[in-house]
Amino acid sequence: MVVEPESTKAFVTLALVVAVYFIPTIVAAIRLHQNRVSIMLLNLFLGWTGLGWLGALIWSASAINKPAGGVAPPIAHAGRSGEDPYHELEKLAALKERGHITAEEFEAEKAKILSR
């Protein structure tokens, strides 16, 4: 079986054209861009216009918002043990003043907060 040089050249050319066409998608995938699927779809369906390809390339190279150090900041939960006890006591006092909790409930919660 003899492989003709023209068919090999055509295959290599096609592979290069496809690789160049999908550069924005490849860049987004390598950078783990949060919108890589959207970039891929823009590249796939509108990349042939040239403007869609350029837009996808710019989008794929745009900044990715990551927290410093690669770790997300902790989320503060109201009423959790990590919160300032004085702030929690102020909240409890406000609830008591508005009549949302009784004096007994206030004292019980206050004892829990102060025992931490």
UniProtKB/TrEMBL annotation:
Keyword Membrane annotated: yes
Matches recorded under InterPro entries: Phage_imm, SHOCT
Transmembrane segment boundaries: 12-32, 39-59
Domain SHOCT: 88-114
Pfam families in UniProt: Imm_superinfect, SHOCT
Name of the protein this chain belongs to: Superinfection immunity protein
Keywords, comma-separated and alphabetical: Membrane, Transmembrane, Transmembrane helix
Presence of the UniProt keyword Repeat in the record: no
